[in-house]
Amino acid sequence: MSDEEKIRPEAExxxxxxxxxxxxxxxxxxxxxxxxxxxxxxxxxxxxxxKTPKAPKSPAARSAKPGKKKPVRSVRTTRPERKPExxxxxxxxxxxxxxxxxxxxxxxxxxxxxxxxxxxxCMGGIMYAAFILCASILLAVFxxxxxxxxxALNKSAESVEITLPESAFTQKTVDVxxxxxxxxxxKTIRVADMNTVSGILKDYGLINYKWLFQLYSRFSNAExxxxxxxxxxxxxxxYRALVKKMQTGADSQLxxxxxxxxxxxxDQVFAKLEENGVCxxxxxxxxxxxxxxxxxxxxxVGTGDPYRLxxxxxxxxxxxxxxxxxxSAINKFxxxxxxxxxxxxxxxAQALNLTFRQVITVASLIEREAANDAERATIASVIYxxxxxxxxxxxxxxxxxxxxxxxxxxxxxxxxxxTDSPYNTYRHKGLPPGPIRIPSVAAIDAVLDYAHHxxxxxxxxxxxSGSHNFAKTYEEHQRNAKDYAxxxxxxxxx
Length: 494
Hints:
Layout: H1 3-6, H2 29-34, H3 59-63, H4 96-99, H5 102-108, H6 115-151, E1 159-164, E2 169-177, E3 183-192, H7 194-203, H8 210-220, E4 229-234, H9 239-245, E5 255-259, H10 266-275, H11 281-290, E6 317-321, H12 326-340, H13 343-351, H14 356-369, H15 373-389, H16 396-402, H17 413-418, H18 441-448, E7 457-460, E8 468-471, H19 474-490
Antiparallel strand pairs: 1-4, 2-3, 5-6, 7-8
């Protein structure tokens, strides 16, 4: 193959309308036979060469019917001389009909729609308009119903009482931010389970749609504003008013007045709080064991044991919110005790080399043993004298406290010996681990201002008045004990 045949022309030069093709030279029959019937453009054009516009088709090609092909004579192409690159001349745009292939012209032809198609299009428009109208009506109705529930429109005013239980609240840790929005730390807050709360509100007719109230709560942060408790509400309250009235201290929250006498122990206090609907014993024990209370008289007292607060729940009459948080209820007692302890009391305790927990412990023993105020200071003297002498206190009241969970009520020598508890002051010297009940202010004063006597013993009087006979010696005490035992025998008391 010659060099001329290796280099194909980039484009076919146009052929005039009346030009006849050149006959192939006789001396090169093989080359003429090798030439293609129709010159083909190269598959990949050189990037630097602009595309040559297509030549217009000849009249013969335009007049030919689709599907019939005229035979094309083979022509010999010669390599055109390369001319210097120049800007290609703009050619006149050929008519559209000259550029379309007959098959493309067929596809471009579209029949006019029938009247039937026009009728379907009209019906579709009517159906679309009807759909838009129905959707608008439904949205309007839905919007009105939602607004009526949120704003409590056209609702009758009926009084209901609801209780948000403590179990519907959990602890959540959140970030603390300064005025510039920077995180400075974290804190733990109490949040409500809005699914539970919305269910309660719907059951009592206060709302109609749980999901809508939950959505409102999410945007208003209502979960962190609610408080457990019992509330008196009306059915004509809007969402905002409901959230505001279900908070501690709100005018809708019901209160109850509960009186706690001196001498109650922690179990009795918690039972009475539950009985009056303040909070459950389970929540109270959990709070007593684990809640943080920052009071000086609890300094050094660790967490984990609910009885660490024994003796510190000051006796008094209190107002409680029904269903309030357990730690808040306990704090009422502790706060009252805090304000009852004067600076003078602190100074006297320090002079006696006693912590205030020890003061409360001794006061609780006096509260249990004394039958009247006149004996309180004398009993305190007996306790101090035995402690200083290294003698066990041997108080029945401490053994009773140690066996309280067993249900035993009758004391005996065998029971005392069998009870292995640090509260058993017959077997263990010194003060018990902590108070055994709530002391009165009079008992605390008796500890701090005790009577200075040499009494080492005390025994109940045989008249069963609750008063005691005091003795300095063991022999004297034995005579007092025999008199009391004889009195028991006369009454048939074991």
